[in-house]
Amino acid sequence: MRSSCASFAVLVGFLGCKFPASLGATLAPQSDLKKEIRQRYEGKLLLLSAPSSFDLIHFDAKGHATREATGEPWTTSGLVRARKIDVRNRQMIIDGQRELVALDPEPPGTKLIPVTTDRDVHVTIELPPSIHSTSQLNTFLAQVFSADGVAQRIANAWHSEVDLKAMDDVRTLPRNGRIGTLENGRPVYSWESGVVTKPRAFYKPGPTYPANALFKRVSGTIRVRVVVNEKGFPEILEVIQHLGEGLDARVLSAVSQWRFERPLRDGVPAATMVIVEIKFHLRGKKS
């Protein structure tokens, strides 16, 4: 009982509440703790330390994800908008929505933005009873997620080195086929240049059809530019042909979960860019 009270006291102190030095003294009500945590994190965009495509995510008391990492990029699998946060039984529980990094269509191809998807995410974090100071708590939470500096991280996730709108003309491509860089200076090559293979999508979950779009009988095609990284994961997305009525975001959410063959450059995995099409029909079918 003593260790759990100590953890509770440290958490209250971390969030700016005052509490007696004696652990046996009366602590602030749990409702106050929840209120402070919600004020600090609810509505914030959190970057998880262990990206995961699962909708149920769990971190143990050592700050480690309990599911084995499979290599998904943080740009499509690591961002959660915290909608509601609770604390109970030495657990921090976050209910939120998945967000992903996409190129802003206005102006096209020059700015990266977070896009909210229709996917709910539930994150549970075990709070260790061994924490005895605010600095220890800060260190622990930093192992699980970051709420600061996320915007700058997003801005640096992709840099284009060519005019993407002119890529249909192979004559405008650099001789080495390089069209941009991903985070940490990883080069991206155009498969049209012939220096890297065009990856085939072997897992293609389809988007859901929003009720308002179905009611309005919206149909047509959405085209998405996808930077497929060296592991075959979509890392950066851009809608280049729109339909609106919430369909663009649904398509981005679906395509972010696609899986591709690894692009190869001289037999070595390398990132490339492809364009995929999602067609919506009047009866709500999609292909």
Structural notes for this entry:
Residues 1-29 have low confidence and may be disordered. Helices cover 21% and strands 34% of the residues. β3 (79-88) and β4 form a beta hairpin. The chain has 287 residues and is of the alpha+beta class.
Overall pLDDT metric: 84
Inertia-based shape: globular
Widest sheet: strand ordering: 2-5-4-3-1-6
**Count of the separate structural domains:** 2
Structural class: alpha+beta
Range of helix content: 10-25%
Strand content: 25-35%
Biggest beta sheet summary:
6 strands, mixed
Count, helices? 7
Instruction: Note the gap between the termini.
Output: 57 Å
Radius of gyration: 22 Å
Number of E-type strands: 16
What pattern of helices and strands is seen along the backbone?
A: HHEEHEEEHEHEEEEHEEHEEEE
> Can you tell me the residue ranges where pLDDT is under 50 for at least 5 consecutive residues?
1-29
Task: Write a concise synopsis of the structure shown.
By secondary structure, the protein is of the alpha+beta class.
Reconstruct the topology from this structure.
Elements: H1 2-14, H2 30-41, E1 45-48, E2 56-59, H3 74-77, E3 79-88, E4 91-103, E5 112-126, H4 134-144, E6 145-146, H5 150-155, E7 158-160, E8 178-182, E9 186-190, E10 201-203, H6 211-215, E11 220-228, E12 234-241, H7 247-255, E13 259-260, E14 264-265, E15 268-269, E16 271-280
Parallel strand pairs: 2-5, 9-16
Antiparallel strand pairs: 1-3, 1-6, 3-4, 4-5, 7-8, 8-9, 10-13, 11-12, 11-16, 14-15
